[in-house]
Amino acid sequence: MNKSSVGVIAAVTIFVLPIFILLGIPVFLGGSPASASDCKAPAASVGGAMVPGSVGAFSGVQLENAAAIMKAAKALGLPSAAQLLGVQAAIGESTLKVIDYGDGAGPDSRGLFQQRDNGAWGSYTDRMDPTISATNFFKALQRVEGWEALEPSLAIHRVQRNDYPNHYTQFRGAATEIVKALGGEAAAGIDASGACPAPGGSVVGELAGKWVAPMEGATMSSGYGPRPAPPGTAGGVLANFHYGIDFVHPGGPGTIVAVTDMKIVKVRNLDGLFGTGVTGQTMDGKLTIGMYHMEAGSVKVKEGDVVSAGTPLGTEGATGNVTGRHLHMEFFAGALPNPMVPINPTTDPGPILKEKGVL
């Protein structure tokens, strides 16, 4: 399969705290988000005043091809999660162009999905047709057991058999933006997981003012303060200073949890710098805590939720401006809805976590 390379990036809900939460009574105000397999696929359009002329680096025939992919999934009765996978795969294979050439690993590969001339993907004409090639991609995806629960790049890899299972991860953000843009209002609530999230407002657990480690079993790998940007990452604001602290879980991805009771004010899905992550405010409004670089699609909370210490937020990952899997955590003074460095000054999390008995 062709291994082209493209990239693109990725609201604040105010939660009014009832008095019974202040008394420490656990309350559940909202339902769980719909699963990716339950989220109905939106129709796709590249016409009309509501659809932009471009989405990130993509325009014209590329968006027409993306719409054809989305329509093929919908015609098969597949959910929006499949639409995301199809567009993600085609970005990674051809940058959403019907190309009439392959690469060194597959010189006979053709079309949007760089499908091989091995009989599995139909004729040359089939492979060069956006609708037919997309339909064949989705039929193959349906034969992958449990594809809905797989990490997106791995699900695509099971169909495409790319040399690098993680090759498609970098295109998830772009695919999400395209599906949302072409799907219109029906796709507005879709996130990078492919789920249609329920509105925030749930209260999870009993709020007791505790503090816990952000990732059980993890070790702190990098502290707060002056530090050159690690090789392989973008410099800029990170060139001479580390604005937070990092944790790494040995042996495999750890589960990232709320370090204390907080209300979730920002959820990021494959943001270019932060990757996937969550930002929350402590209940006393004295701190805003950002936790970044989670695995794509792993976030378990919504903006507007209130969660107790130890509530799972997501899975340790390597999304955003990083070179490897870890959790990056930043502390900001005060209650901020969407803090970003260096616009908002950070404070060293280390002394606070030590004072709370976490470090």
Task: Kindly describe this structure.
- With 359 residues, this protein is α+β, with helices and mostly antiparallel strands.
- 22% of the residues lie in helices and 17% in strands.
- It is built from eight helices and 15 strands.
- The strands form four sheets. Strands 3, 4, 7, 9, 10, 11, 12, 14 and 15 form a nine-stranded mixed β-sheet that branches. A two-stranded antiparallel sheet has the order 1-2.
- Strand 9 (262-271) and strand 10 (275-282) form a beta hairpin.
- Helix 2 (61-75) packs across helix 5 (130-142), helix 3 packs across helix 6 (152-160) and helix 3 packs across helix 7.
- It is elongated and about 65 Å long.
- Mean pLDDT is 83; it is low at 2-37.
Secondary-structure map:
Layout: H1 19-22, E1 54-55, E2 58-59, H2 61-75, H3 80-94, H4 124-127, H5 130-142, H6 152-160, H7 172-183, E3 203-204, E4 219-222, E5 225-226, E6 241-242, E7 245-248, E8 255-257, E9 262-271, E10 275-282, E11 287-294, E12 306-307, E13 312-315, E14 327-333, E15 346-347, H8 349-355
Parallel strand pairs: 3-12
Antiparallel strand pairs: 1-2, 4-7, 5-6, 7-14, 8-13, 9-10, 9-12, 10-11, 11-14, 14-15
Helix pairs in contact: 2-3, 2-5, 3-6, 3-7
